[in-house]
């Protein structure tokens, strides 16, 4: 991480700090009546009716044969750290799981709560261009008219998807490959978007999770971005990941899938725990057993809360897409509501979670 004290001071001077003498109450999410949860789901909005689907037949992810074999010639080495300028700040590419140098609430000194919505949006890259555009547009503007503040994307593996996301008005997106280069690449399969009116981009990183296998799976990565909430002056982190498919019931290449999926879980865990600011992570984890796997990766201690509706599924009747909070962040993020969101023709539903964020001065 190349963020310096001078850079933070500049951010502090440019970003207006909203002063308030008392905490501001969160705004209700369009009349949705959902209970808050912490570590266990107890609310549901399944939306349209769905028939059960075979979780084992989820997908075979292959961008290109070259990518599936491992790092292609155009792929930067795991040790590369390519910095470049984008609209809102520097970029960092790395594969180190260490903590961010940014500290939470480094700027804010007053109590300023705010409401924020995070969306997990899983696409089906083999759909037609028209279908891809429709699903992506639904992620930006949900069928109920709500626009998420941050979006973690998975399976963005075609140029048509990339162009649709990067050209959407009102949002910026971090593309992890080589100085924010929006081209088809395994790193760019899991980008993260945010509302430009709400957040300023500070930095982003890409962390390799597992090697690909030809005709089975590409390399897998975890993406992490650091954002500054403009109104409150607080730093937050978002994480995105797409794990190897068929981990629960492999139909083929079982040894590879199980080993790669275990590596994916380990890296996601490392990147989440290494975030230096309060973090929300999400992804298509291709398992219904994510809580048990995360607990096992932390020697029997559950370090996360899992924010999903109490019933229904994100892929047929199965929950493969999860929104995850780190318990060590305490009550920074208070979950107010969580919904499954219809993103058809994508084969997955989205998961949208609404939080009230409470900076340290509010405690």
Write the topology of this structure.
Elements: H1 5-14, H2 65-69, E1 114-122, H3 129-140, E2 150-154, H4 159-166, E3 171-174, E4 192-195, E5 199-210, E6 220-229, E7 234-242, H5 254-273, E8 279-284, H6 290-297, E9 304-307, E10 321-326, E11 333-341, E12 350-357
Parallel strand pairs: 1-2, 7-8
Antiparallel strand pairs: 1-12, 2-4, 3-4, 5-6, 6-7, 8-10, 9-10, 11-12
Structure characterization notes:
This protein has 363 residues and is of the alpha+beta class. It is built from six helices and twelve strands. Helix 3 packs parallel to helix 4 (159-166) and helix 5 (254-273) packs across helix 6 (290-297). The relative contact order is 0.21. Residues 1-107 have low confidence and may be disordered.
Query: Major sheet, described briefly?
Result: 6 strands, mixed
Order of helical and strand elements: HHEHEHEEEEEHEHEEEE
Structural class label = alpha+beta
- Model regions low in confidence, pLDDT < 50 over at least 5 residues: 1-107
Write a brief caption for the model.
With 363 residues, the chain is of the alpha+beta class. It has helices at 5-14, 65-69, 129-140, 159-166, 254-273, 290-297, and strands at residues 114-122, 150-154, 171-174, 192-195, 199-210, 220-229, 234-242, 279-284, 304-307, 321-326, 333-341, 350-357.
């Amino acid at each position: 991480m190349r963020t310096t004290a001078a850079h933070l001071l500049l951010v502090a001077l440019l970003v207006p700090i909203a002063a308030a003498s008392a905490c501001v109450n969160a705004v209700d999410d369009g009349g949705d009546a959902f209970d808050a949860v912490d570590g266990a789901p107890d609310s549901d909005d399944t939306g349209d009716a769905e028939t059960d689907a075979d979780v084992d037949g989820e997908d075979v992810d292959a961008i290109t044969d070259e990518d599936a074999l491992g790092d292609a010639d155009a792929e930067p080495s795991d040790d590369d750290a390519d910095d470049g300028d984008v609209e809102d700040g520097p970029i960092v590419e790395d594969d180190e799981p260490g903590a961010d140098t940014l500290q939470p609430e480094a700027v804010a000194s007053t109590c300023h709560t705010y409401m924020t919505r995070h969306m997990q949006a899983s696409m089906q890259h083999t759909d037609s261009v028209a279908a891809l555009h429709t699903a992506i547009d639904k992620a930006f503007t949900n069928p109920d008219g709500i626009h998420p503040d941050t979006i973690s994307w998975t399976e963005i593996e075609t140029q048509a998807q990339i162009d649709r996301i990067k050209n959407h008005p009102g949002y910026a997106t971090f593309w992890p490959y080589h100085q924010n280069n929006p081209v088809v690449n395994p790193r760019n399969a899991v980008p993260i978007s945010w509302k430009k009116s709400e957040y300023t981009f500070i930095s982003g990183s890409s962390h390799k999770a597992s090697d690909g296998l030809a005709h089975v799976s590409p390399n897998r990565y975890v993406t992490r971005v650091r954002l500054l909430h403009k109104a409150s002056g607080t730093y937050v982190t978002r994480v995105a990941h797409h794990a190897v498919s068929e981990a629960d019931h492999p139909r083929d290449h079982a040894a590879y899938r199980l080993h790669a999926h275990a590596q994916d879980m380990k890296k996601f865990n490392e990147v989440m725990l290494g975030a230096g600011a309060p973090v929300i992570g999400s992804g298509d984890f291709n398992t219904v057993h994510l809580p048990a796997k995360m607990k096992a990766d932390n020697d029997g201690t559950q370090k996360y809360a899992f924010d999903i509706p109490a019933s229904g599924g994100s892929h047929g009747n199965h929950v493969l897409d999860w929104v995850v909070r780190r318990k060590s962040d305490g009550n920074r993020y208070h979950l107010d509501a969580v919904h499954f969101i219809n993103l058809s023709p994508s084969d997955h539903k989205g998961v949208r979670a609404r939080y009230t964020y409470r900076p340290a001065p509010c405690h």
